[in-house]
Amino acid sequence: MSWFKRVEKGIVTPTEQKKETPDGLWYKCPECKTVASMAEHKRLLYTCAKCNHHDRVDSAEYFEILFDNNQFVELDENLTSGDPLRFVDTKAYPQRLAATQKSSGLKDAVRTAHGRLHGLDLVVACMDFKFIGGSMGSVVGEKIARAIDYARRNRLPFLMISKSGGARMMEAGYSLMQMAKTSAKLALLSEAGLPYISMLTDPTTGGVTASFAMLGDFNIAEPGALIGFAGPRVIKETIGKDLPKDFQSSEFVLEHGFLDFIVDRKDLKQRLADLITMLRPAEVAVAQPQPTLR
């Protein structure tokens, strides 16, 4: 068979010269499996160009999206949790906190800041799911409470961006107390006539849903976000029945009257600016405090 000869096709690269593709260059949508460059994915504010799936993002990304030129003053940035219960599961709570702080670069599961959105002053509290599942502990409640107080003192609107698995079990009753504390602070904000906008993102569950996340003058959400108290698996096992299609999605929650509207992340900044302009008190529109931005 001398007439047959195998011919290599394509580019032949010696093994020692082959290189792995660097991580972080490409994004694959978990819903429709479309592949795009990370640069394009970021340009679309971490949404899929084909199916509009909204990826989970954290406070750093939301602050960059919302605040003009990504300039803001962070509030109470060094507040950290103690260990009042000396809690130990697979590891001691202080060890878990230290490891999570190191891996995430965060002090706890929420960051609060004052900046400007299209020139409008705004106080924002944004939760980070990568910090122990965005769980609500004493620091989360305290930072939100202090941010609300800051908004009251300076006559500013307040935006809460929720993303949480619920109360932090390592702080037990101390976590549950934050539900009452934050709700009471929001009542004072309402008495002061200042707007509170609550934005629910994927996922917003547990004690966060049962408290400050559902108390907004306007409750808004991103498309496809999971919103509920208990998870769908727990509910299904409890009631012993199949759940409706898209149960606990933001679209389902909107249809049943618990949301005012759903907003695409690419439209978020402008929609918030329109809402704040409509809601803010007259004296705030005349003279707003000028923060020292960084």
- How many beta-strand runs? 9
What is the terminal separation in angstroms?
Answer: 76 Å
Largest sheet: 7 strands, mixed
The percentage of residues in β strands lies in 15-25%
- Low-pLDDT stretches: none
> What is the averaged pLDDT score?
91
How are the strands ordered across the major sheet? 3-4-5-6-7-8-9
Q: What is the subunit arrangement here?
A: single chain
Please work out how many helical segments DSSP would assign: 10
Shape: globular
Radius of gyration: 23 Å
**Helix-strand sequence:** EEHHEHEEHEHEHEHHEHH
How much helix is in the residues? 25-40%
> SS-based structural class?
alpha/beta
Question: What is this entry, summarized?
Answer:
Keywords: ATP-binding, Cytoplasm, Fatty acid biosynthesis, Fatty acid metabolism, Ligase, Lipid biosynthesis, Lipid metabolism, Metal-binding, Nucleotide-binding, Transferase, Zinc, Zinc-finger. This protein has 294 residues and is an alpha/beta fold.
Structure in words:
- 33% of the residues lie in helices and 16% in strands.
- The protein has 294 residues and is α/β, with parallel strands linked by helices.
- Strand 1 (26-28) and strand 2 (35-37) form a beta hairpin.
- The protein is built from 10 helices and 9 strands.
- The strands form 2 sheets. A 7-stranded mixed beta sheet has the order 3-4-5-6-7-8-9, sandwiched between helices. It has a two-stranded antiparallel ribbon with strand order 1-2.
- The termini are far apart.
- The chain has helices at residues 38-43, 59-66, 93-104, 138-153, 172-191, 206-209, 232-239, 250-255, 268-279, 282-286, and strands at 26-28, 35-37, 72-75, 110-117, 120-127, 158-164, 196-204, 218-221, 261-262.
- Helix 4 packs parallel to helix 5 (172-191).
- Zn(2+) binds at residues 29, 32, 48, 51.
- Pfam families: Carboxyl_trans (PF01039).
- This is Acetyl-coenzyme A carboxylase carboxyl transferase subunit beta.
- It is found in: Cytoplasm.
- Belongs to the AccD/PCCB family.
